UniProtKB/TrEMBL annotation:
<dbReference type="InterPro" id="IPR039425">
    <property type="entry name" value="RNA_pol_sigma-70-like"/>
</dbReference>
<dbReference type="InterPro" id="IPR036388">
    <property type="entry name" value="WH-like_DNA-bd_sf"/>
</dbReference>
<feature type="domain" description="RNA polymerase sigma-70 region 2">
    <location>
        <begin position="38"/>
        <end position="100"/>
    </location>
</feature>
<keyword id="KW-0804">Transcription</keyword>
<feature type="domain" description="RNA polymerase sigma factor 70 region 4 type 2">
    <location>
        <begin position="129"/>
        <end position="180"/>
    </location>
</feature>
<keyword id="KW-0731">Sigma factor</keyword>
<dbReference type="Pfam" id="PF08281">
    <property type="entry name" value="Sigma70_r4_2"/>
</dbReference>
<dbReference type="InterPro" id="IPR013324">
    <property type="entry name" value="RNA_pol_sigma_r3/r4-like"/>
</dbReference>
<keyword id="KW-0805">Transcription regulation</keyword>
<dbReference type="GO" id="GO:0016987">
    <property type="term" value="F:sigma factor activity"/>
</dbReference>
<dbReference type="Pfam" id="PF04542">
    <property type="entry name" value="Sigma70_r2"/>
</dbReference>
<dbReference type="GO" id="GO:0006352">
    <property type="term" value="P:DNA-templated transcription initiation"/>
</dbReference>
<dbReference type="GO" id="GO:0003677">
    <property type="term" value="F:DNA binding"/>
</dbReference>
<protein>
    <submittedName>
        <fullName>Sigma-70 family RNA polymerase sigma factor</fullName>
    </submittedName>
</protein>
<dbReference type="InterPro" id="IPR013325">
    <property type="entry name" value="RNA_pol_sigma_r2"/>
</dbReference>
<dbReference type="InterPro" id="IPR014284">
    <property type="entry name" value="RNA_pol_sigma-70_dom"/>
</dbReference>
<dbReference type="InterPro" id="IPR013249">
    <property type="entry name" value="RNA_pol_sigma70_r4_t2"/>
</dbReference>
Length: 197
């Protein structure tokens, strides 16, 4: 899916310059405001990558501590939300690596077509069904799907984040998307024999 047709990242929150300046100066109220604005996107991203609420809460805490610790280093040459999101993604992926969940990737076949990158089917509008389906995917595959579809990362960016190749990201995306479709699309209704009479 081309980047321009993807929904904006949930992190895409414009932080006013005055608030950011106060936060960079260590103003507690400004830092609390930044925390409140980004708490939900960080937690959601961490939950999608780690697949566990406790792990997601830890990622949220670690991310926000790093943001507070490093906010003076933010140079402003990119949006603040992008800088904060990068910290959150790094924290979530680091936790994923620590959990040694890398072997759970879907089997890869290098000859398999990798063009199945369409978003999940319309049934995915049911957030609870999507959450259940995502939870059944291997953590690495789920991470690639989330980073690509929800956060708008390219395959090259995902590859760099995961220390893998762009074709690895494409394969994970294609296989994960097919698995999600299979889980989310309703079973075809069989027509009773009497209906044909």
């Amino acid at each position: 899916m081309p980047p321009e047709s993807r929904p904006p990242s949930s992190f895409a929150i414009e932080v006013p310059g005055a608030l950011l300046a106060r936060a960079r100066a260590g103003d507690r109220a400004a830092l609390e405001q930044v925390y409140r604005w980004f708490e939900r996107p960080v937690f959601t991203l961490a939950l999608r990558i780690c697949g566990d609420r406790e792990e997601a809460a830890e990622v949220l805490q670690d991310t926000m501590l790093k943001v507070i610790d490093r906010i003076r280093d933010f140079r402003g040459d990119s949006p603040f939300w992008g800088w904060l999101r990068q910290i959150a993604v790094n924290e979530a992926l680091m936790r994923l690596r620590r959990a040694k969940q890398r072997p759970d990737e879907l089997d890869l076949d290098v000859h398999e077509p990798q063009d199945d990158v369409a978003p999940p089917p319309p049934a995915a509008a049911d957030a609870a069904a999507l959450q259940r389906a995502l939870a059944t995917l291997p953590a690495t595959t789920r991470s690639v799907l989330w980073l690509y579809h929800a956060e708008g990362y390219t395959h090259e960016e995902i590859a760099a984040l995961m220390a893998r190749t762009a074709s690895f990201s494409k394969s994970q995306l294609a296989r994960g998307t097919r698995r999600l479709r299979a889980l989310l699309e309703p079973e075809p209704q069989s027509v009773p024999e009497s209906a044909h009479a």
